[in-house]
Design a protein that fits this description.
28% helix; 9 helices; alpha+beta; six-stranded mixed β-sheet; elongated
Length: 365
């Protein structure tokens, strides 16, 4: 088939690669001037293990499978990564049940290697850590997400696919047994495709709304949650990722992550916004200090500085339960050779290679 993939973030590129490997002719259309400038460009770059998500949900299934696939891909292609491990910590007795529940859910989800540690065992791993209980996940890791996306792009092109930058998709219409895609940009045109995958991230609902025949009532409402990150001066005090017990505000709490150079950063928090805005308010540092000092009391005054912010395309808003990934293929909407991907937030990076195989299977069915 000739397949159009809309969106050159990590999921769109993974989908394009999966389809190209199966022998399809692929064009990945991206509205921006480079790959991975949206959701994919401003994450924690964590390879998640899969213990947070409801058992049998799309997030759980694709995260666990995706983590295995992404480690294998990185080892084969040389994409920089490190299986550094993670500690999810309880800082008081009231959080211990939450940690125990994550442990049980992780085991039900098939996450390997999870281990409950008491305070002394956790401190032997991370001497600067203060907690009452911790769940150790040895298979959590970090990745150079841009290098990963470049490798995906390379495999698309190696198998005959192409990337079209600055190419917004303005309309999708069914005609003569094919999808007619109308493109804007510097050279507006209309091209026929046998199949279309909408992996446009923030723009996915808008693409769905411009798809002829797709029910307007099925177009999801997008909620934007900004996640702010703060960097930390000084010598890194930890060698593993540190996550607090999850919050109920749509996030996993202000956690400590590392990049591949060992640099420490904290975040994200959850700040609901109406429009894309990547500015970090320095005043939010106060809430960061308070949250971080629950598990790292020795965090020095003045150590935090505004770093960057990312946006998550959520399908539910403040006070609502987190939604699962939403994958709509022909079986869901009745339109042939069309797949829409909605609400692909965390763990979207980890899940990308698994999601790509799911999409490819739906088109090949």
């Amino acid at each position: 088939m000739d397949v159009l993939v809309v969106g050159a973030g990590v999921v769109g590129l993974a989908v394009g690669r999966a389809l190209a490997l199966r022998g399809h002719t692929v064009i990945v259309a991206e509205v921006e001037k480079a790959i991975g400038t949206g959701v994919s460009s401003r994450s924690s770059e964590v390879i998640h293990a899969g213990m947070y998500y409801p058992t049998d949900s799309l997030r759980a299934l694709n995260c666990v499978k995706g983590a295995q696939k992404i480690y294998h891909f990185c080892e084969r292609t040389g994409v920089p990564h490190r299986r550094c491990g993670k500690l999810i910590v309880a800082c008081d007795a009231g959080e211990a049940d939450a940690i125990a529940n994550i442990h049980a859910r992780g085991e039900a989800n098939g996450v390997a290697g999870l281990e409950l540690l008491d305070a002394d065992q956790a401190k032997r791993l991370e001497p600067n850590l203060t907690c009452t209980l911790a769940l150790y996940s040895p298979n959590t890791g970090i990745i150079d997400s841009h290098a990963f996306m470049l490798a995906l792009q390379g495999e698309i092109e190696d198998h005959g696919g192409a990337l079209a930058l600055r190419t917004p998709v303005q309309r999708l219409a069914r005609e003569n047994g094919q999808w007619q895609a109308s493109f804007g940009g510097d050279e507006p045109d209309t091209m026929p495709f046998d199949a279309v995958v909408n992996a446009a991230g923030f723009g996915a609902p808008a693409i769905a709304a411009r798809t002829e025949g797709y029910p307007a009532a099925s177009v999801p409402r997008l909620h934007l949650a900004r996640g702010n990150y703060f960097g930390c001066t000084g010598k890194p005090a930890f060698t593993r990722l540190i996550y607090p017990a999850p919050r109920i505000d749509g996030g996993l709490g202000i956690h400590l992550t590392l990049d591949l150079n060992g640099r420490v950063r904290f975040g994200p928090d959850v700040e609901w916004v109406d429009e894309p805005d990547y500015r970090v308010d320095p005043a939010r540092a106060a809430s960061f200090y308070e949250a971080i000092r629950r598990y790292w009391p020795a965090l020095p005054d003045g150590a935090l500085f505004p770093d960057y912010a990312g946006l998550r395309p959520k399908l539910t808003g403040p006070g609502e339960a987190a939604a699962d990934f939403r994958i709509e293929g022909p079986a869901e909407h009745g339109l042939p050779n069309l797949v829409h991907l909605f609400g692909i937030e965390s763990p979207g990076l980890t899940s990308s290679l698994s999601l790509a195989e799911d999409v490819a299977d739906r088109l090949d069915a």
